[in-house]
Amino acid sequence: MTTVEQNMFPAWFDRLQARYMNPVVRKIGPYLPGFAVIQHRGRKSGRVFTTPVNAFRAKGTLYVAMGHGRTDWIKNILAAGEAETTYAFRQYRLTNPRIIARGESDPGLPRLARLMSRRLPLFAADTE
Questions:
Q1: Phi and psi angles of residue 104, each rounded to the nearest 5 degrees, phi first
Q2: What whole-number distance in Å separates Cα of residue 116 and Cα of residue 18?
Q3: Smallest Cα–Cα separation from 100: which of 62, 54, 43?
Q4: Sequence-ordered list of residues with C-beta below 8 angstroms from that of 1, at least 6 positions apart, any chain
Q5: DSSP helix/strand/coil, 115
Q6: pLDDT tens digits for 85-120?
Q7: In angstroms, rounded to a whole number, what is the distance separating the alpha carbons of residues 88 and 66?
Q8: What is the pTM of this model?
Q9: How far is CA 118 from CA 9, 29, 105, 112, in A?
Q10: Measured between alpha carbons, how far is 104 from 86 in angstroms, rounded to an integer?
């Protein structure tokens, strides 16, 4: 497993979160500080999915720490090259999706992104 694909959570927590926590956060996430709900299309099925994530937006970019590794929602957005998100009561179109490797210390990154990227890779996408 590369550093991009590592999952810092145990498998049982991933299952618990997907089954019980995500359905609740999916409904209230767009209204909570530090959360976003991302709408993306499945790369194989073509179905529309919504995924709640811990996120922050700075300098026109949405950042998400990849604590669960390279998940399906990340693969879907990277394949499509775009998605939609609701963050802080606003809708954004996500473009230019990319992975920022763990430990990458680009001085152009916001301080919070630099701190998060010390331990985890980041998913980043421009917001329009």
A1: -65, 120
A2: 23
A3: 62
A4: 69
A5: helix
A6: 999 999 999 999 999 998 876 777 888 888 888 888
A7: 20
A8: 0.83
A9: 17, 26, 8, 10
A10: 27
Say which DSSP state 90 is in.
Answer: E
Taking the chain (128 residues) in runs of 10, the rounded mean pLDDT of each run is: 56 72 77 92 95 92 90 95 95 97 80 84 95
Please say whether the beta carbons of 86 and 51 come within 8 A: no
Our CA dihedral for 45, 51, 57, 60, rounded to 10 degrees, sits at 20
DSSP secondary structure of 27-85: HHGGGSTTEEEEEEE-TTT--EEEEEEE-EEETTEEEEE-TT-S-HHHHHHHHHSEEEE
Residue count of the chain: 128
- Which amino acid is residue 30, in one-letter code? P
Stretch (H or E) spanning 13: helix 11-16
Which residue type does 68 have? H
